[in-house]
């Protein structure tokens, strides 16, 4: 007899997702390989998700909805995935992420840490592991955060990616995350990002001093209808701002910051110099 792992939906949202997936699959008389044939995932991957040994992804959720005929329904796996992710992300961020996926232009300013949109997996994992070690999240939630950041980056590789303008405070380059090798890989990623045709990367150097127009992170989104949103964060919560005058003030401050920052060429030179000192 096949050894089947007993599923306990009460063990957490990932377990509940897996238990529901198995139930719906078995109700249709499908084996894991049958479901795999209806998606781009293997039977082994399906098994790992059902038993909560593998983090659920947005892409898998969408493909499961297609296989089960649940696209757009209130019971869709995509809807369940979004509820699951909301539990591991900062309050306010899931709503922002929804609009980020739709944006045609993204302008961001980061202090201290590289934006999740630009993080390599090892960098994201180091941050998530530190949060788990502090007890801020569980290990499963930490893994969910990493998976979310990696999926979030898919917008940069789609057929028509958004135009992304990124200004990073120099502290983002010099704050050691994960050790020298991880930081080296992260800085290499920034250089690669700067070389893309629809991106602009600038560094706001420490030498800017009091001329720095922003003192906390800010992201500005332009949507397909040309409406704009601003996103900021406190220590515990994210805030999505729609009020026209407030968003306009954010754009003004961002452009003032960009004008004082290093050019992209000089920024890449600085990144490469910092990279040399790591390994």
In percent, how much strand structure appears in the residues? 5-15%
The tally of structural domains comes to 2
CATH fold-level topology of the largest domain: Endonuclease, Chain A
Radius of gyration: 21 Å
Main CATH class of the largest domain: Alpha Beta
Description:
By secondary structure, the protein is α/β, with parallel strands linked by helices. The chain folds into two domains: 9-86, lambda repressor-like DNA-binding domains (434 Repressor (Amino-terminal Domain), Orthogonal Bundle), CATH 1.10.260; 93-276, Endonuclease, Chain A. The protein has twelve helices and six strands. It has helices at 13-27, 32-36, 43-50, 58-68, 77-86, 93-102, 121-133, 139-152, 170-174, 180-194, 244-260, 264-276; strands at 105-110, 163-169, 199-204, 218-222, 228-233, 238-241. Strands 3-2-1-4-5-6 form a six-stranded mixed β-sheet, sandwiched between helices. α4 (58-68) packs antiparallel against α5 (77-86), α7 (121-133) runs antiparallel to α8 and α10 (180-194) runs antiparallel to α12. The protein is globular, with a radius of gyration of 21 Å. The N and C termini lie far apart (53 Å).
Question: Can you give keywords for this protein?
Answer:
alpha/beta, Endonuclease, Chain A, 2 domains, 6-stranded mixed sheet, 12 helices
